[in-house]
Design brief:
- With 64 residues, the protein is α+β, with helices and mostly antiparallel strands.
- It has one helix and three strands.
- Strand 2 and strand 3 form a beta hairpin.
- The longest helix has 10 residues.
Length: 64
C-alpha cells in the first residue's frame, strides 16, 4: 500500500461550507492544523480588485 502524505492542503470549494470541508478532511484521515485565506483577484476595465477570499486548510495525517 502506498504511504500517504503527512500534510495536505484542502480548499473550501465553491458550493461547500467550511464544515463540509472539515468533514471531507476527516474522511480522508487528516486533521486541520492551519487555516489561511488567500485573496482571489479579478480584472475589470484594467483595474484589479479582490473578487473573494479562498479559504484553505492545511491538514496533518491522523496517526492510528
Amino acid at each position: 500500500m502506498a504511504n500517504p502524505k503527512k500534510k495536505k492542503k484542502f480548499k473550501v470549494e465553491k458550493n461547500e461550507s467550511v464544515l463540509d470541508c472539515l468533514e471531507r478532511m476527516k474522511a480522508e484521515g487528516y486533521t486541520p492544523v492551519r487555516r489561511s485565506e488567500v485573496p482571489v483577484f479579478k480584472e475589470e476595465n484594467g483595474m484589479r480588485t479582490v473578487s473573494h477570499q479562498q479559504i484553505e486548510f492545511e491538514g496533518r495525517r491522523i496517526e492510528d
